[in-house]
């Protein structure tokens, strides 16, 4: 299977934009999850103490990010193949 770089770029862009556009979900641990369909970016609640940095209260799950990109890639690829097959 050849990977279409243009579709991969669109899938990556859509995956990253979902974190900004769609509302967050609250996890069982009380953290906010961003990303669709799987929350790949997490912000933990709680007050920051003096000397803390914002990066200590956030985490990025690269596996779930890659899984989201793969899902969007498959959806876009399926839709583009259906549109192209109708044109021919």
Describe this structure in words.
Helix 1 (5-21) packs across helix 2 (62-87). The model has no long low-confidence stretch (mean pLDDT 86). It is built from two helices and four strands; from the N terminus they run αββββα. Helix content is 49%, strand content 15%. The longest helix is centred in the C-terminal third of the chain and has 26 residues, at 62-87. The protein has helices at residues 5-21, 62-87, and strands spanning 25-26, 31-34, 41-44, 58-60. By secondary structure, it is of the alpha+beta class. It has a four-stranded antiparallel sheet with strand order 1-2-3-4. 8% of the residues are buried.
Tag the structure with descriptive keywords:
88 residues; 4 strands; 15% strand; alpha+beta; four-stranded antiparallel β-sheet; 2 helices
Give a quick summary of the entry.
By secondary structure, the chain is of the alpha+beta class.
SSE arrangement, N to C: HEEEEH
What overall geometry do the principal axes of the alpha carbons give?
elongated
Structural class: alpha+beta
Total helix count? 2
What layout of secondary structure does this protein have?
Blueprint: H1 5-21, E1 25-26, E2 31-34, E3 41-44, E4 58-60, H2 62-87
Antiparallel strand pairs: 1-2, 2-3, 3-4
Helix pairs in contact: 1-2
């Amino acid at each position: 299977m050849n990977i279409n770089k243009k579709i991969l770029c669109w899938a990556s862009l859509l995956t990253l934009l979902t974190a900004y556009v769609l509302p967050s979900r609250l996890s069982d641990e009380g953290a906010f999850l961003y990303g669709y369909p799987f929350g790949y970016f997490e912000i933990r609640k709680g007050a920051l103490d003096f000397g803390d940095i914002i990066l200590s209260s956030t985490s990025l799950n690269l596996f779930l990010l890659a899984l989201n990109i793969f899902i969007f890639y498959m959806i876009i690829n399926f839709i583009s193949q259906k549109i192209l097959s109708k044109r021919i």
